[in-house]
């Protein structure tokens, strides 16, 4: 289906990444190959954050109509905003956690539709996520000596360079498609995926993000978005995917607490400055 709109070799993975970070889609990763094998639509959920409330997960015309009717009856404003490369953002204002629970309960009772409520998912997700080192230890041991044309990620320039015979620590990938990724540390090599391998290579070495507390914006290089569920934690703070500004990806609505938690989990010092 994705190929009808995006014929890039990585188009399907990019689409899955976008829908996953928005909380619309859940991906199953094969523990041996570290590649997505299955996907499922996440349950319909009203997400409540300090910057607003919005719908994530499953949606249908019937569900949206029921949400709109019950929300308007309670004096809430429902806004449907087109979003780039993703479903429209459906938001509710003003809506707190208690009101969201009442709204979800009314929809279940009157329309027999299941809707969950999640308050501050970014905070809870980051508390649950393991440290970067523990995450690395879950990756399968592997070796890349059988692969020709390897490239190694240079954390100082943010570019992939020919690896030659290098077996230094860091992130590696195959030069040819389909890509395979690894991370090498302490004399062992583990199968990984992009962009996680880059963040593993940069941990405690090179900051791959910058944060501006005045604008509450967090910036990453275009080629180094936040990895998987870390990105979901950042995106669910607002329900908006990152915007592209020049060579950077900008995550908005990131408060100091969330920025510090992301930096701590990814073992990256936050640089205060303009994003």
Describe this structure in words.
With 275 residues, the protein is of the alpha+beta class. It is 28% helix and 30% strand. It has 8 helices and 17 strands. The protein has a 5-stranded mixed sheet. A hairpin with a 2-residue loop joins β5 and β6. The longest helix is centred in the middle third of the chain and has 15 residues. The protein is elongated, with a radius of gyration of 20 Å.
Summarize the helices and strands and which ones pair or pack.
Layout: H1 11-21, E1 25-29, E2 36-41, E3 45-49, E4 52-56, H2 61-73, E5 77-83, E6 86-93, H3 97-111, E7 116-119, H4 121-128, H5 132-137, E8 150-154, E9 159-162, E10 170-174, E11 181-185, E12 188-192, H6 196-202, E13 209-212, E14 217-221, H7 228-235, E15 243-245, E16 248-251, H8 256-265, E17 271-272
Helix pairs in contact: 2-3, 4-7, 4-8
Task: Give the overall shape.
Answer: elongated
Task: Give the % helix.
Answer: 25-40%
| Backbone CA Rg | 20 Å
- The run of helices and strands is HEEEEHEEHEHHEEEEEHEEHEEHE
Strand count, sense and barrel status of the largest sheet are: 5 strands, mixed
The strands making up the biggest β-sheet line up spatially as 5-6-4-3-7
Show unreliable segments: 1-5
* Total DSSP helices: 8
């Amino acid at each position: 289906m994705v190929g009808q709109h995006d014929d890039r070799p990585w188009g399907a993975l990019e689409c899955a990444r976008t829908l996953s970070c928005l909380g619309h889609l859940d991906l199953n990763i094969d523990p041996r190959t570290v590649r997505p094998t299955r996907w499922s639509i996440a349950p319909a959920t009203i997400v409540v954050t300090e910057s607003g409330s919005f719908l994530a997960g499953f949606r249908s015309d019937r569900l949206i109509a029921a949400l709109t009717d019950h929300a308007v009856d309670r004096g809430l404003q429902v806004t449907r905003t087109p979003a780039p490369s993703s479903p429209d953002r459906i938001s509710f204002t003003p809506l707190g956690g208690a009101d969201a629970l009442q709204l979800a309960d009314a929809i279940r009772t009157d329309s027999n539709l299941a809707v969950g409520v999640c308050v501050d998912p970014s905070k809870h997700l980051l508390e649950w996520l393991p440290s970067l080192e523990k995450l690395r230890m879950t990756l399968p041991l592997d070796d890349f000596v059988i692969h020709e044309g390897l490239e190694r990620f240079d954390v100082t320039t943010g570019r992939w360079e020919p690896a030659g015979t290098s077996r230094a620590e860091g992130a590696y990938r195959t030069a040819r498609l389909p890509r395979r990724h690894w991370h090498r540390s302490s004399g062992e090599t583990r199968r990984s995926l992009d962009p996680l391998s880059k963040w593993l290579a940069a941990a405690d070495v090179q900051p791959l993000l910058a944060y501006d507390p005045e604008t509450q914006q967090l910036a990453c290089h275009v080629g180094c978005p936040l990895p998987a569920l870390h990105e979901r934690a950042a995106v669910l703070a607002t329900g908006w995917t990152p915007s592209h500004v020049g060579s950077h990806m900008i995550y908005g609505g990131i408060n100091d607490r969330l920025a510090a938690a992301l930096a701590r989990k990814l073992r990256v010092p936050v640089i205060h400055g303009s994003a």
